[in-house]
Amino acid sequence: MVFSSPIFLCAFLPLVLLLYAVIPARFRNFFLFAASLLFYAWGEPRYILIMLFSTVFDYCNGLALEKLDQKNQPVARRMVLILSVAVNLGLMGFFKYTDFSIESFNQLTHSSVGLLHIALPIGISFYTFQTLSYTIDVYRKRVSAQHNIIDFGMYISMFPQLIAGPIVRYADVETQLKDRRIDMAQVTRGVFRFAVGLCKKVLLANQLGALWDEIRAAGGAVPAATAWLGALAFAFQIYFDFSGYSDMAIGLGAMFGFTFPENFNHPYEANSVTEFWRRWHITLSTWFREYVYIPLGGNRKGKVRQIFNLFVVWFLTGLWHGAGVNFILWGLYFFVFLVLEKLFLLRVLQRIPKLFGHLYALCVVLLSWVIFACDEPALLRCYLRACFGQNGLWNEESLYYAGSYAVLFVIAAILSVSLVPKLLKKLSDRIGRPAAVTAVRGAACLAAVLLCLAFIVGDSYNPFLYFRF
């Protein structure tokens, strides 16, 4: 079950919201925990036991860390933390990287070890990082150990953001697990945010994704104009797909009384690669900064050590996204540009007109999406050569794609920047009547959801890209 499926929109979500609203507040966490397990089991019944194991395991680790702190046993506390990290990362690594490791071993040694063909549990990368944030922060004494296993289980399995983020650290919602208030204004904002995310996914990401799939299917045998149109289509697809899911998750969280962290801040407005990563997948960047980069020493131990720390972070960032050489190359690609910017390039960008910095960042990011999306080395080589003119500059097909998708590209470009939100805020302030604004938003949400349902029913192409991470 996914957010953009008819059964979720027309049955599961309305029923869960209705029951959540009428049951007593003291039972709401249990109900949301049960609903979340049902949501996950709908698509992954076999792997719900893995998530439940992680939940119980780190619940016990949190209690153990608290008890050992009371007994003043720092060595034992450190061993509990190491065990938690090892088991959680070991589980994720087994399911995510075993076949990749076997393939790499076979290529290096010319062996023929058979693959295990292990299916990847949906969302394991996200809920693994969430449960790790809990044990690490309990160890650091930044949060208190959770004594109610239902509350903790609800935090780990919460269906609004379970399978594709944003990555909600325990510290983000610690107080909300027990004390949260729901009012009509908050629910209205949540519904509007959910509708915005649904439109991003169904009306933009899906349509542009179809173009990317068509161009990618040519295997790189396309002229440069077509190759760059494909890269642009994928850039918009992954942005509207992932930010749309994040919008839906944040909106759903608001309906249930939670405030989840923002995950995107118009990243294609960035004037440097550094700024891009302050705006893109913010919760992942925050996680790596808090739990990897800073513990390694951050920028406090000299330039050489800082570069090494950045290498570790971006190697792991690439690896986190998937078991493939292209993902590792993608992470290291960004590492190179981020190091160059820290060494001298940022100073250069600050001295030149912002337009040039913006164009530089867009070109770097567009090329990164080619690396990200081409999961076979041969395809990546051919596609990169096509981008730089090996197959000519353009042909009739290039003109056809450009003409057919021009309007959609223009709409996507406008909606990927902050212009429309700013205009809507100014319009809302000018109207100055909250009731009228709410009525307009409600009508817009209803129309948007109905339009999206029409597209969903008539279109079988409806994947979420980040479900596979």
Low-confidence stretches: none
Assign the structural class, choosing from mainly alpha, mainly beta, alpha/beta, alpha+beta, or little secondary structure. Answer: mainly alpha
Assign a percent range to the helix content. Answer: over 70%
What's the total number of strands?
A: 0
The major pleated sheet works out as: none
Distance between the termini: 17 Å
Shape: globular
SSE series: HHHHHHHHHHHHHHHHHH
Please give the domain count.
2
The helix tally amounts to 18
Rounded to an integer, what's the Rg over CA atoms?
23 Å
If you average the pLDDT, what whole number results?
90
> Strand content of the residues, in percent?
under 5%
Structure, explained:
There is one protein chain. The chain has 469 residues and is mainly α. It has two domains: 6-180, no CATH class; 185-468, no CATH class. It is built from 18 helices and no strands. It has helices at 6-22, 28-43, 48-70, 74-109, 124-139, 149-157, 170-173, 184-216, 224-255, 273-279, 282-296, 303-321, 325-351, 354-373, 377-387, 396-415, 419-431, 434-458.
Quick recap of the structure?
With 469 residues, this protein is mostly helical.
Secondary-structure blueprint of this entry?
Layout: H1 6-22, H2 28-43, H3 48-70, H4 74-109, H5 124-139, H6 149-157, H7 170-173, H8 184-216, H9 224-255, H10 273-279, H11 282-296, H12 303-321, H13 325-351, H14 354-373, H15 377-387, H16 396-415, H17 419-431, H18 434-458
